[in-house]
Description:
By secondary structure, the chain is mostly helical. 72% of the residues lie in helices and 8% in strands. The chain has one domain. A two-stranded antiparallel sheet has the order 1-2.
Amino acid sequence: MIESLRARLNRVGQSYAPHEHRPLSGYVTAMGGFGALAAALAVAAKAKGSTPERPAPADVVLLSLATHKLSRLLAKDSVTSPLRAPFTRYTEPAGAAELNEEVRDHESSLKHGIGELVTCPFCLAVWVATGLTGGLVLAPRLTRMAAVALTATAVSDFLQLGYDIAKKRAEE
């Protein structure tokens, strides 16, 4: 059954994008993984007896900044490149300790789809935000502490970049 679904997705993918390989079965698997993550968080919250409440505006801001930082850290940072290496190939530095990478050409749609996911901070943000939001429900103190560290790092990054811009302008 899985093979027939995979074959059907390949046929749909060929008619969807005849001039470019689009790993639709990999995307379906990623969507299934995301659904499983969300379901696992919901089940864990139910088992713990945690009823999610409307988040405070301060928590929304905190998690937004933390999501930004963790998504970029996972998708672009040089230090996390070993996590992406099975799915990507290094192309060039991107400045400020970030890398540009391209998705490896894989025979596997799943690996190709994962490669696209792990190189895209915008794509990873949905996963990170879901995890942090689930953490806020299940372990709010620990999640807030981790989010504070990520947020402080994000603010520091912007300050470092701003300082560098100001320094370059002063030297002109």
